[in-house]
Predict the structure.
Amino acid sequence: MPVTLLHSLPALSQTRFTAEKTRVACDPPSDAAHGLGTLYIDEQRVVFFSTEASCGFSIDYPTIVIHAVSRSADPVGAHLYCQLDGPFPGYAKAGGDSDEEDEEEQFAELRFIPEDEQLLDDMFKAMSDCAALNPDDGGSDSGSDLDDLCVGDYQDESAVQTIEEFNSSAFITSPDQLSSLTPKGRETLAHLESIIVESTEQTNGYNDEGRFDDAE
Amino acid sequence: MLFYSFFKTQVGQHVTVELKNDLAIQGVLESVDQFLNFKLKDIKVVDEERYPHMLSVKNCFVRGSVVRYVQLSPPTVDTALLQDAARREAQSTQQMQQAKPNVAPPVA
């Protein structure tokens, strides 16, 4: 459940940041997300809870598309801005003017306004760190081949093919083709090989996975 | 990993990040991590009318899994370096498959 409404404060074990007396505002408005409460930025999720009202909500990190610091130029005051990948639960489409903007109500925007503006940078950093701790599950995001390409799967051939398609004749894709290089080309290649250190390290890291093969 | 390395070379450059929800953000790439989460600064939302709350946002963190495209500035892209990196990756993949013929190729 990406956004869960709460009626009691859940047990939080790895909270990176706590901001008391924080106001929350949701657009489109939701009864479940307004008023004053405490924001907990936990390693597992973001929780907002008001002890007085005995209600709040928690959000999983994959649901938060963007988070950002919005400075005082905004009328609600400086705040932490979060854009969600879908609507906020409890939002009713009963509003009179919601029809024409139907398509634009697909996402919710949350704003957390701390009492002390100085906290914002730390809140942002905590949320960034926690977001990085919670990458999407491989299977949950069907439209995302970007994940498949980039998260650990760096031998995916489609990555190479995509580049190849631009101009297949200009790319050398196998060692056999190296012999067709001009002397000048070989020089350039030698130079490039001497300056690309990073990708070599990463390749070695990957090949290391085979080191356990001998153990059996 | 090629993409991660590549985007690291783009840190400090102007990019436009286009999200799967059609939001497009122009800004300077501040950092990128292995999940291709982007931190941008000095941002400007292309369609400001649709996202009025983002008007006063200067820095943001974009989740890598929601990015559809990243528009780059052509002069900042070293295509020769990219060609070589792509070739190396293809080569190492090939060697790996030769070395371990019993390992199934990755599911594309």
Remarks:
- The beta strands of chain B are 14-19, 24-32, 38-45, 57-62, 67-71.
- The CA atoms of residues 24 and 46 of chain B lie 6 Å apart.
